Amino acid sequence: MAPKGKRTKADPEQPVTRRDFIHILAGVVGGVGIGATVWPLVDQMNPSADILALSTTEVDLSQIEVGQSILVVWQKKPVFVRHRTQQEILEAEATPLSDLRDPQTDQARVEKPEWLIMVGICTHLGCIPLGERGDYGGWFCPCHGSHYDTSGRIRKGPAPKNLFVPDYVFVGDDKIIIGTTET
Ligand code: FES
């Protein structure tokens, strides 16, 4: 019997399909792979902090349907933008902080419950996790088996921290700017 709150239908071994992500290459990276891809963390240290601080990415949310995710690039990093389902929101909000390795409420991780925006780099060793996978129906990192929940919080496996939520701001209902809190 599956532990309470866990999903069993999400299978980490399930092959990735085209509907998992719509890739929007909004940055300087020429392509973003799905799967056990290790993001080149060292490269992020090359540009000066001043230059990176100026970099923002604008995302049009109007075409992202409920239950769909897109991947955008911000400051050379992959960022997941997920339009969460009601079930995902309810599961994330109902999780007790005592169940979490890196305790953080779902409310603290979102501006609006239906939109989850996170840097898509596993906090273990930098792979890109797969969406809608793993024991908690969120993200699964196939490199060493870290499971994140529908709020991107680490629940199982070697990763020490939740997926990072960057600064972003809503500009109207259908647009966000990642990398700033000011409009
Ligand atoms: S890099 Fe994700 S589990 Fe190791």
Record the SSE blueprint:
Elements (H helix, E strand, L loop, with lengths): L21 E2 L25 H6 L2 E4 L8 E6 L2 E7 L2 H9 L20 E5 L10 E4 L4 E4 L4 E3 L5 E3 L11 E3 L4 E4 L5
Parallel strand pairs: 1-3
Antiparallel strand pairs: 2-11, 3-4, 4-5, 6-7, 7-8, 8-9, 10-11
The protein binds FE2/S2 (inorganic) cluster.
Bound molecules: FE2/S2 (inorganic) cluster
CATH architecture: 3-layer Sandwich
How many DSSP-defined strands? 11
The parts where pLDDT drops under 50 for at least 5 residues are 1-35, 41-45
Which oligomerization state do the chains in this entry correspond to? single chain
Question: How does the overall form come out from the CA principal axes?
Answer: globular
Structural class, please?
mainly beta
State the end-to-end CA separation.
Answer: 48 Å
What's the SSE pattern? Answer: EHEEEHEEEEEEE
CATH class: Mainly Beta
Number of helices: 2
What would the average pLDDT be, to the nearest integer?
81
